């Protein structure tokens, strides 16, 4: 499978984050969601992000994914500065490089599974076939179903197919199993792991489930807007071996 | 109500209103438009009717007028003794020409005599705005009609020269007055009042009698009836008494020109009041329905929670009704204020043409109450369905999240197989088909707006067609001359030979009562030359419809009033000479948009009346270069009672129509745009609120703002595309209805709509929708992706 091509001047880091802060509001009511985060993210890793509620996980991912902006600090994506990119540049960045999966699947209820995926492949530079993407998440049988005709787990896998169909270099998954039961959750994680292995996309996975950390190449733990722990997992297990 | 001044739920109402202020504002605006029309036009209808009634009562406006040629003064006592008669005033009315200097055509008009003893007239009193009545016994003092005086700068103390019965006289103006008979001071046979060319003066009876040779006689009796008296019976009695004295036939207020115009104005206003506010309020109800339905759908779980806490269904219903009623109240307040202002403006405009001593625009509490009832009713009706759904939600059911929107069934799913459609377009189509009711209501609202717009432009098309038909096609003369008495045909020869007269066509016009079965109309029967070329009745292709021997050409409006068609035989009762009753066969009933016409051959008319080969007027085509000299000469020619100038008439008519219609059209366009804006803005906003997750997801995936806007705005564009032809068609229908209901004795609106009118209407509609799209577009640009996606549906 194609891994991201090397461009001149590129490091083997997907992201280089320095002094990243995010403040909501100002004055005495200001909330410091992130307080000076530093992090290098090597290409192709599957990173599980843990931390208490409100510790800044989503904020961090949203900034890396180009949905939000830093208050201060720098974020470099393969040599491209995201912290001072224009809105249009961020839109392009998301379209070309990033796949998102959210806790709530956010599918278009008016489009079938295939169409939901095709929505992205139409604007991508080098997409896979929507059928192929759905096959990667084990949904080859449900391509013509509408979201209303699918279970939550199936909907989430459509969302993953939609995220991977453009062959993204980065996958951002914010509690993708949060709304699912354990067995369904495992199937979703399998799909994500599969994609990470096959596409080589650097994958972030926020979860409140510590045991998911076992399938990661790296585990990052947030506390109070900072990274408290950054640990490499030498022996990631297969998702199918997880349970909770 | 205990403790906290505002309950939590009430605070929620306020916050919801604030959050949805754009939509609330848009709906309130539509309500306000409806209310302001109701308040202004409804109020004006009542004000006008009441003002007129008070004016007539205070100034003893006549109920019946009985013209004659010459009746002896003592006959007045006989008339007073008639059954049903309350009071009688006799007078002499004679045509006058005014000599006021200045170039251009000379003004003409009437002198009406005042009682000989200097007393107030018992009927048709004057309202002096300046000066005094002529002194008792004076024969060279006159009071001048207010509008005429204002136009010509006449004031008490000035002298002016008039030609009365062929004699030039100098009179002193002693006062300026309004008269209930001349509220709408229009020359007979004219379409619009022109104070420059038409005036009325009042002088003592002795003076007028001496000048006209009517001493000891009168030529008109004006009569007030006893309460409950039968007007037809009194008219018949008057006719009987006056018959030997050349009675032209007594007529009531229905045929009194000024009153007929005031009535038509009131009727038209009433039509508008009945037609327009309902359109706005129905649209407002649609909008409320859409917005409250959406609100209830979103707040299912909150409602369930409240019910679980122990709130009653009535409290839930009350909550949403409060939300709706605030919209109604906002619209009502704005509409009432706007309506009062608009009403005052319109009253001012009306007062320019209709001269009352006082015209106060006022809205009585009942008027506001009706508007309030209508507005609240419409809004509550719009909210009713959604509110009932909210009240009926069971707590357990409500707490369950709603099933995801199901697009798998119906027409929408079929579109999955439609090739060649991109996904965004597919989303647009499926969304439309999934909420057909909402799309339908939105479409209906836009169509209503389109219909109003077409109707607005239709008015000016109709007037243009009317003017073109009457002034260019049917009446091709420049000038018409009326003689004070019938003269031998040869009287025209001198006129025909004057320099500047290019073509001349004599006529004889006589008052007549036409009867068919039980119906009767009063009009003028015109004897015309065999092949009229200048003043014609015309067929649908502009061809002349000339009377044939023994036949009558009757304009459609008169034929309709009589209920007669071609081939029918009507009785024409003439009042001259031997007062013959002719049986005339109707040979054609051509449509006239302006005025009426009853034509027969001049020879036939003269033979029937047996007073020789005579005429009492002529229409002329004149050379523009010689016109001024010709007018000056005609002014001095004996026996000329009055002149009317086609170009002047056209100009004043056009000016009046431009001014009054211009305002109506402006108001129509403004309000129709309000509807379009309100409807389109709401549709797009609701659709956006409903799909913000989808739209945010698209943005997350890297779709640009333009792409996302497309999905939202294409929906509105598509609905507009469908609503547009429907609205234009409905507009044509509305215009057709207007053409039927706005017609009066004086004019009928032809049903013609130019392509340009459709184009303008369409353009305004599209621009309004685009504008609301642009407003919402700004919100799309500010869509907070993170916030939207963080929350559960
Ligand atoms: N739009 C916002 N305005 C103000 N404060 C915010 C906003 N978004 C997040 N925060 C605050 O920033 C902090 C970090 O939020 P974030 O969503 O990143 O936490 P999280 O680690 O993802 O939590 P969870 O596990 O609950 O999702 C929290 O204190 C939160 O209240
Ligand atoms: Mg989070």
What features would you describe in this structure?
- The complex is a heterodimer of chains A (244) and B (793).
- Chain A is of the alpha/beta class and 244 residues long.
- Chain A has a domain of 167 residues: P-loop containing nucleotide triphosphate hydrolases (Rossmann fold).
- In chain A, strands 6-7-8-3-9-10 form a six-stranded mixed beta sheet, sandwiched between helices. Chain A has a four-stranded antiparallel beta sheet with strand order 2-1-4-5, with helices on one face.
- Among the domains of chain B are: 121 residues, no CATH class; 197 residues, no CATH class; 122 residues, no CATH class.
- Chain B has 23 helices and 20 strands.
- Chain B has a six-stranded mixed barrel. In chain B, strands 13-14-18-15-17-16 form a six-stranded mixed barrel. A four-stranded antiparallel beta sheet of chain B has the order 2-10-1-11.
- In chain B, helix 2 runs antiparallel to helix 7 and helix 14 packs across helix 21.
- The interface between A and B is large, with 36 and 36 residues.
- The site of adenosine-5'-triphosphate (ATP) has 12 residues of chain A, from strand 2 and helix 1.
Summary of the model, kept short:
The complex is a heterodimer of chains A (244) and B (793). With 244 residues, chain A is of the alpha/beta class.
Q: Are any ligands bound, and if so which?
A: adenosine-5'-triphosphate, magnesium ion
Number of strands of chain B: 20
Oligomer: heterodimer
Mean pLDDT of chain B: 87
Helix content of chain A: 25-40%
User: Would you identify the regions of chain A where 5 or more consecutive residues have pLDDT less than 50?
Assistant: 1-10
